[in-house]
Amino acid sequence: MMTTQHIKIIGGGLAGCEAAWQAVQLGCPVRLYEMKPEKFSPAHHSPLLAELVCSNSLRSNATTSAVGLLKEEMRQLGSLLIRVADETAVPAGQALAVDREKFSAKITAVIDNHPLIEVIHEEQTRLTTEADNPLILATGPLTSAEMAESLAQLTGRERLAFYDAIAPIISEDSLNMAIIYSKSRWEDGPGDYLNCPMDKEQYLAFIHALGEADTVPLKEFEDEKYFEGCLPIEVMRTRGEDTLRYGPMKPVGLRNPRTGHDPYAVVQLRKENKEGSTYNMVGFQTKLTYPEQKRIFRMIPGMEEVDFVRLGSIHRNTFVCAPELLQASLQLQGNPQIYLAGQLSGVEGYVESTAMGLLAGLNAARTILGKEIIPPPPETALGALISHLTQTEPGNFQPSNVNFGLFPAWKKKIPKKLRGEKRKEISLAALALWREQLD
User: Fold this and answer.
1) What is the pLDDT of residues 235-258, one digit of tens each?
2) CB of 21 closer than 8 Å to CB of 80
3) Which of 268, 381, 383, 385 could form a disulfide with 282 if both were Cys (CB 3.0 to 4.6 A apart)?
């Protein structure tokens, strides 16, 4: 069924592109506004749509994990971005990591060439609606001050902010492979990750240097408020001597094949592209100054002469207090013509942001077509995220990755080792019934 109405989408990131794709699958035309390449945010550098900034990993692909289950639900709903992620995947153990340039290039080509999508490269600074055309705001965690102020004026709520840090990317040919070894956690033989082993003396020297290092100061108007799932390593360091050893530098399951012993700590490196010419420092998001990053990270065994393709940085993330502002359809309370998608809606992570774009695009299109909006069941990963956004106590609300703690409580006790499979079984059955309702 075709329509003369269109959906206006502001933001050509992951959520905006997925929303556009879902809408045109139902025959609804889209005008997608993207400010690049006319203007770039502090963290974006590529002119392409759907640019990945913080990491190239979409996390676990195991459908017995919450994020793996979310990706599977999205696959079954025809997600463009998950399909392209599968097509541009690079080896990363059980995780789904992508070649970020090929990923963005493929998404851009699909969006640019679709007959029902008009891409308009200009910045939008205010929320202005047009007749009966739905508007999806998907400007992401780096929403401009002007647009955030427009949203605050519209909703009557003050926006919230926290800080998200970016991990460095390094050149493979500058690594010392006489020290570094390949291994994925618990796997025998070479794995998809490179591992830089540390003994106790090296580890203690490293964290001491972190504790003494210079960091980029916050601006006068900024409050220090980090997302717990993406803490800068120097912030983790302040929580105790062993915090990093139990976090991103955990050595468990990474025995050094050269020595036959477990290292005291490990820095893991993950491929950024299929060729393996560049690697991401796993879990090493940071707000250290650039000179300090070069000095301290070159203390890591095997990285003494490393070349940095991109150094770490920190940027502000903006999101709304979803329980006060959003309906389960992702429409704004009191202004249902406007939908919020992506991290701005109050989720955290690439996959979760894309998932909210999927639902916003689907719901906006159904509105145009005169169809009922039916939120996904809470037993699904999609529904669990919507429940988090709409049913959390507002005073306790914080952006969240998808996790099984967001799902409905078990009606009866399930052995821990069986819970992942049981969640998968219940979720996919509920998803199938929901899809029948949508048809």
Assistant:
1) 999 999 999 999 999 999 999 999
2) yes
3) 268
